Amino acid sequence: MSENFLEAYICYRLNISDLFDEKIISKDEKIFFKLQYNQKLKFARRLGLPREAYEFFDKLNQLRNKFAHDLNASPINKSLIESLINIVNRMEPVSDLFEQEYQGVRTFKKNGEVDKTYKFNDEKTTNSIRLSILYAFIIRKLNFKICNIKI
After folding, report:
1. Phi, psi of 40 (to 5 degrees)
2. Other C-beta atoms within 10 Å of 141: how many?
3. Is the CB of residue 151 less than 8 Å from the CB of residue 105?
4. Which residues, 6+ apart, have CB-to-CB distance to 32 below 8 Å?
């Protein structure tokens, strides 16, 4: 998901909506612009992605790499979650803080009824769910920042 966000951010900043799509120039020429995740992250930073978002996505990438290359990797720990909260809270607008007691997520059944509710500060909520809640929060904060919407 974060890679898709980075691609969308880069496309938006460059005003090239199909930058990462396979581009057919002619019947015998196709161009596909491909970057690794870390390259997209650095490129987005150079195009104005806030430093805190860069740090957040970099930590996500480190976590992804840890799980991808070590089948015995330890689960997501509390210190990582706390460091991500600190990063999110440093990002402008700082008035929009990640207040744990108000954050959560719901899952829904196919008929639209609420299936489960997870609260960030509930001890039963796993750190992977907490990470998802933090991710959604930083994306929301970035969208408001990019669109110049006052919170």
Report:
1. -65, -40
2. 23
3. no
4. 22, 23
Give the pair of three-digit tokens for residue 118: 């997870």
CB 130 within 8 A of CB 103: no
What is the rounded distance in angstroms from the CA atom of residue 84 to the CA atom of residue 104?
Answer: 16
pTM value is 0.83
By residue count, the chain amounts to 151
In this predicted model, what pLDDT tens digit does every residue of 31-85 receive, in sequence order? 788 899 999 999 999 999 999 999 999 999 999 888 888 777 778 889 999 999 9
d(CA 24, CA 92): 40
Where do runs of H (alpha helix) occur along the chain? 2-14, 37-46, 51-69, 78-90, 127-146
**CA-wise closest residue to 102 among 119, 114, 90, 89:** 119
Is 146's pLDDT higher than 90?
no
Token pair of 63, please?
């976590």
